[in-house]
Amino acid sequence: MYDPKSLKAEEFICDKEVQDTISYAEENKENIALIDEIIEKAKKRKGLTHREASVLLACEIPEKIEQIYDLAEQIKKDFYGNRIVMFAPLYLSNYCVNKCVYCPYHMQNKTIPRKKLTQEEVKQEVIALQDMGHKRLAIEAGEDPVNNPIEYILDCIHTIYSIKHKNGAIRRVNVNIAATTVENYRKLSEAGIGTYILFQETYHKETYEKLHPAGPKHNYAYHTEAMDRAMEGGIDDVGLGVLFGLDLYKYEFAALLMHAEHLEAVHGVGPHTISVPRVKKADDIDPSKFDNGISDDIFCKIAACIRVAVPYTGMIISTRESADLRENIIRLGVSQISGGSRTSVGGYQEEERPHDTEQFDVSDQRTLDEVVNWLMTAGYIPSFCTACYREGRTGDRFMSLCKSGQILNCCHPNALMTLKEYLMDYASEDTRRKGEILIEKEMEKITNPKVKEIASQRLQLIEQGIRDFRF
Ligand code: SF4
Ligand code: SF4
Questions:
Q1: What's the 413 CA to ligand 2 centre distance in angstroms?
Q2: Is residue 133 part of a domain?
Q3: Do 450 and 322 lie in a common domain?
Q4: What is the count of structural domains for the chain?
Q5: pLDDT in tens, 175-192
Q6: Do 277 and 161 reside in the same domain of the chain?
Q7: Whether residues 196 and 265 fall in one domain
Q8: Measured distance CA(439)–CA(418) in Å, rounded
Q9: What is the extent of the structural domain holding 410?
């Protein structure tokens, strides 16, 4: 029985409701009157239900798809402007007791070297990341209660926040670790994490159980209910995601939105972010073995439909995707991207990109400076802002500022100030030159004279060597 308010996975991600949604979308995919009605509703920027959004996803009428893309682009402009927040993943350990068949860290893979960073190595990785210019990390670790207990993760978070190398600092640590207990989530919350991110991988229970044949992750309900425990443990911002390619994308899409609706119904606040990774090649993993792979066109359509369905939720894309695809998809609603990523344990300290412990192939292999330069050339402002959670703007407080549009008064000047820090401390000459021109131009767009004056003073102070301003 479908019930978005239920705390039971099989009731808030009710299989029958997902199937009925897919049938409803299929039946209505050429119903122009209904599609127009849904597009009109989406224009109000209050979001769509999973059923409505699924109709848009199923629609194959070129001119309607064009309208959906245009709207996604417009919503992105209205809520996120031309800013793109930058982050990098940091792999702590690839020890894992699970057997996820799409991941090279699965415990039966005997060819991959196992590695876990010591605190000294975490420090070296963080220094390397700070020297690139990163301020925001997402830490990643396999599930292994012996090698990667919660105490280890907490020690790493503490180490990361404590390192201040030159003008560098990691100001926000997002955490991507296995589903855990309320008590452990509370410890993460007290350690000052940003967002807790957990990919569902697939919402289809039968497929989920097949793809996770053993280990604690095999338990579908425990995994799917993790965000409720995280919120109970005091974590305000959670990030959802599915690994597209494992099951049918229409199923994942509807269920993902049902999960978002569930969080809103129970906790009064939807997901902070949604990630859209696709299965990629890696050691012992051949993506062609998964027969639900999606084309670039479908992938872009999914992104556009997510954007119009949940306008207040940030959307993340990683370096799994190529530079070309990222360029295309960013305009449709992506608000955060990783740059200069290395997906191996200890990868940032190495001169050359190491492949032996990689979780997946990185398609976009450009350096952070190259990505920053490319974004600015394409008219975007790369932002290293981490202000919100440090100012206590999390959970429903953040969402209400978002919904009233007030958050924009913070995001834009914060993007410019953090970009200025990046230009002063880490950028190549060409990037710095482009960045200075961009900042000058973007300062003119600040309409509030007080904010403009303060931002302008702070930009000068950054030139004089002072760091870490925020609205
Ligand atoms: S996806 Fe995560 S839990 Fe599964 S094998 Fe890989 S590291 Fe382990
Ligand atoms: S002000 Fe808040 S919402 Fe805006 S970019 Fe910074 S952290 Fe994100």
A1: 10
A2: yes
A3: no
A4: 2
A5: 999 999 999 999 999 999
A6: yes
A7: yes
A8: 11
A9: 404-463
CB neighbour class for 362 (10 Å; exposed up to 12, middle 13-18, buried from 19): buried
Give residue 83 CA to ligand 1 midpoint distance, Å: 32
| Owner of token pair 């994308």 | 249
Q: Could you tell me if residue 45 is inside a domain? A: no
Average pLDDT over residues 21-45: 98
Last residue of a domain, one of 314, 334, 365: 365
Q: How far apart are CA 418 and CA 370, in angstroms?
A: 17
- Please give the Cα distance from 459 to 445 (Å, whole number): 15
- The answer to the question of residue 376 being in a domain is no
Phi first, then psi, for residue 137 (nearest 5°) are -120, 155
The residue contributing the CA closest to ligand 1 atom 5 is 106
Nearest CA to ligand 1 atom 2: 142
Mutate to test the pocket of ligand 1, among 91, 106, 200, 357 (most ligand atoms within 8 A of CB): 106
Q: Which of 273, 380, 385 to mutate to test the pocket of ligand 2 (most atoms within 8 A of CB)?
A: 385
294-310 pLDDT tens trace = 999 999 999 999 999 99
- Which atom of ligand 2 is nearest to 471's Cα? 1
CA angle 413/414/415 to nearest 5° reads 90
Over pLDDT 70: what percentage of the chain?
100
Which ligand 2 atom lies nearest to the CA of residue 411?
A: 4
98 lines ligand 1 (CB under 6 A): yes
Q: How far is the CA of 156 from the centre of ligand 1 (A)?
A: 19
Name the pLDDT band for 360 (thresholds 50, 70, 90): confident
Residue pair 139/175 in contact by the 8 Å Cβ criterion:
yes
Same domain, 277 and 348: yes
Strands (E), 48-135: 83-93
Which ligand lies nearest the alpha carbon of 98? 1
Task: Indicate if 316 and 420 belong to the same structural domain.
Answer: no
Q: How many CB atoms neighbour CB 438 within 10 A?
A: 21
Q: Ligand 1 atom closest to Cα of 103?
A: 6
Q: Do 427 and 355 fall within a single domain?
A: no
| pLDDT band of 319, cuts 50, 70, 90 | confident
What is the average pLDDT across 32-58?
98
Q: 327 and 420 share a domain? A: no
Query: Predicted confidence band at 356 (pLDDT cuts at 50, 70, 90)?
Result: confident
Mutate-to-test residue for ligand 2 from 136, 173, 410, highest number of ligand atoms within 8 A of CB: 410
Give the separation between CA 154 and CA 122, rounded to whole angstroms: 12
Ligand 1 neighbourhood includes 100 CB (under 6 angstroms): yes
Q: In this structure, what token pair is assigned to residue 282?
A: 């890696």
- CATH code, domain carrying 224: 3.20.20.70
Q: How far is the CA of 312 from the centre of ligand 2 (A)?
A: 12
Clarify whether residues 83 and 151 are in a common domain.
yes
In a domain, 115, yes or no: yes
Of 318, 340, 365, the domain-final residue: 365
Closest-CA residue, ligand 2 atom 2, reads: 388
